[in-house]
Amino acid sequence: MSKAILNAVAAVLPKAEHRHCARHIFAHWHKTWKGDEMKLLFWKIAKAYNLADYNDALEELTQLNVDAATAFKGYKPEVFCRAFLDTTMKTDAITSNIAETFNGYIIQARTKHLIFMLEDIRNNLMQRLVVKRQQMEKSTSILCPRIQQKLEKEKAKASNCDVIPSTDTLFNVNYYLDQLVVDLEARTCSCRKWDMLGIPCCHAIACIFFQNKEAEEYVDKCYWRQEYLNAYSGSIPPIDGERYWPRIEYHLDPPPIKIGPGRPRRNRIKDPFENPKKPGHLSRTGIEMTCSVCQVKGHNKRRCPNRESAVVAEAYSSSSS
């Protein structure tokens, strides 16, 4: 909507990677290509970490609908699909949820006058820095708690990997029908999940366990507990209230406030398919419904042709039990 932002980012942050929000792209794409199967294939393609998985998922979409696949490629997958994104950022985020979260965090403050809006944001952030730091100080692990949970999930899947060493740091890993290459020294894996996230994937963890080492040591330093504490070590100083501000004798009036016609806007402009009662959630418009009685797609239980037989069968089973 605001294409001038692209020029500003390119001028101010020339080395920054610019990604598009996959959720908004899906909202536009899904207007034409509807259905649960289309939705699952879209996110399967967008969330693929490597080109092999990306091409397989795209081929699956092409077999289902050639026009849908052509339309998908028209949205420049290079800027919102994980298979093409830069791995130096150590994040696999392909949505603008972070910005939307902060927007919801200051939604009440945005309705106030500029000075009081900034004061509310300052108070909230000042308190947040202290709360987050105190919560992390209670942790005793090397990693942040949420990162440790993700690592434990990968550890559970590592038992399905068969490790074949080439050198002390280079391995072949057989995972079901896949064969991948893991380099512990370069901290890379053919699946690219470790490269992009900075958290060892199950293939890498199997190699780490093969070397009798701890997986936590191979997690990127940005996820370590100490780095988190360093990030939150700063503080925002408190400020006296307006009654204690110094007064000046010079008569200074604020600039006139020009109020435009209509009610002032509080929220961002929402997508036509977004649910107004649940900000950030797309409505179920265009999603193919599934009957809870006969489990057949295309109708619900109210219009189910097999509803009476299902009710009779349920009554018979309850009476016999």
TrEMBL record:
Region: Disordered, residue numbers: 256-279
Pfam families linked to this entry: SWIM
Origin: domain of life: Eukaryota
Residue stretches making up the SWIM-type domain: 171-212
Alphabetically ordered keywords of this record: Metal-binding, Zinc, Zinc-finger
InterPro entries: Znf_PMZ, Znf_SWIM
Stated name of the protein: SWIM-type domain-containing protein
Lineage, top ranks: Eukaryota, Viridiplantae, Streptophyta, Embryophyta, Tracheophyta
